Amino acid sequence: MTMDEADESLLKALLAGEHRALARIISKIENRSPGYRDLVSELYAHTGNADVIGITGSPGAGKSTLVDKLAEAYRERGETVGVIAIDPSSPFTGGAVLGDRIRMASTVGDMDVFVRSMSARGTLGGLSTATADAVKAMDAFGKDKIIIETVGAGQNEIDIVRTADTVAVLVPPGSGDDIQTLKAGILEIADIFVVNKADREGADRTVQELREMVHLGEESGLAGGAGHHGADAMGGDGESWGDIDESDDDTDWTPPIVETIATKGTGVDTFIDELGNHRSYLIDSGTHAEKVRQRYAEEIRTLLREDVHALLEDELADSGGIDDLAEAVRQGETDPYSIATDVLAPVEACVENLAADADDSGSE
Amino acid sequence: MSSEQEAESIRCLVAKVGLDGHDRGAHVIARAFRDAGFEVIYSGLHKSPDQIVQAAVQEDVDVLGISILSGAHDTLVPKIMDGLEEYGAKDDTLVLAGGVIPDEDREGLKDDGVAAIFGPGTSIEETIEFVRENVPQR
Fold first, then answer.
1. How far is the C-alpha of A104 from the C-alpha of A64, rounded, in Å?
2. How near does any CA of chain B get to the CA of A42, in Å?
3. Is the separation of the CB atoms in B22 and B37 below 8 Å?
């Protein structure tokens, strides 16, 4: 791998613990500036020590506030924290107002909590790649805990939190209907459920509903989701549903439900304990290795998709530009499928080469 | 590799510093910057200079817009500039000030490193244009 001198010294500064260098490298990752790939490749050698936690939930569920309290608690334990806060960007102007920092007040003035706001910049799958790379940068920098915070609205966000080892889903009380919608996407990715604002009316009911849902999921194997097929028992975990543990490919991890009041810091310690439990479970059961493997597989795929996409843009230009092609379809001269086949043909050979390249850089 | 798609965006921190609860202007600017396609990080109210510096460094912003309507600019702005200097971020951050800042104080702030001061009555377009033209090339 070749890096120019500026990048080389930037990398050195990051490894030496300079905040500015970390900030600058994340910018390069976000901007996809020339050379960022080599930089990220180099980062990989220094990663693997951080514990990555994803936090998601509907807008207003209290994610930022909880993350703030979580960061504070980790700092009290002497651990350093990186936070990546992701907000949506306007699909029209690309602009964004990133407001998560406002709620992160407990740890301001403490540079060992590194908060970085990011927004989607309009490329398919781009944000999850950028997030994964930013996590690598923070990991290489030496952060013990890295928290990714994002609104759990769609597939894009689900891909993002999958970058994490442990995913916590926040559910505000009194959102019976919300839980219905959660079932489809978010139930599968939650390792821990957090009912935040637990002092509000309806909190008990929400906990109850979640418990039933988790229970149902256990029975049908639904909660298995991705990468949860761990091997053996993990012993004394708080809540276990031993009585329904019949089928042999059943999951050993049952998502616990934690009640918190983030504004007061109530329940944060329990939450941290559960995060720790899940971490131990991952490692003891061998699920962690499996998860990491899946994640790298996904990273490789995403990178390739982006690469091919970029190549196709060139091919499209060579074929006369998307506008002309679209016009040809409108005039009834051809159809999108034929065009796709034609444009893709010269690229297919390149894809194989790309796959080989990415395999090299993806497997440390 | 030829396939690197650059996706640069102008990043701005809109900051309220000190004991000053007037955030209307900051909100208007944040919104206008967003609509101009910038990525805006809003600091929230009542931040200390240290907090602003921390946010500006960690977020690696191109532009730092400080809104002050309390009259304490001569105290707060130099502290922010010193903080940026400490992290090596002073030279390539475009620092703007807005709010009620008397004419006689403007020269001093510019000497501290503030690139421009936008007082009451400045048009949004003017501010955005200034940012586009003066954003540091890194």
1. 7
2. 16
3. no
Interface of A with B in 282-341 (CB under 8 A): 306-307, 310-311, 314
CA A322 to chain centre: 33
Minimal Cα distance from B8: which residue of A? A31
pLDDT in tens, B16-71: 988 888 888 888 999 999 899 899 999 888 888 988 999 999 999 999 999 988 88
Helix axes A19-31, A5-15, angle to 10 degrees: 130
Contacts A102 to B, Cβ<8 Å = 42-44
Whether B12 and B61 have beta carbons less than 8 Å apart is answered as yes
Give the one of B6, B54, B55 whose C-beta lies nearest to A32's C-beta. B6
Same domain, A349 and A312: yes
Domain assignment present for residue A27? The answer is: no
The CATH homologous superfamily for domain B11-132 is: Cobalamin-binding domain (3.40.50.280)
Q: Does A29 reside within a domain?
A: no
Domain interval for residue A96: 47-285
Interface pTM (ipTM) of the complex? 0.83
pLDDT tens for each residue of A229-244: 433 334 444 444 444 4
One domain, residues A91 and A132: yes
Q: What is the pTM of this model?
A: 0.80
Check if A9 contacts B (Cβ < 8 Å). Answer: no
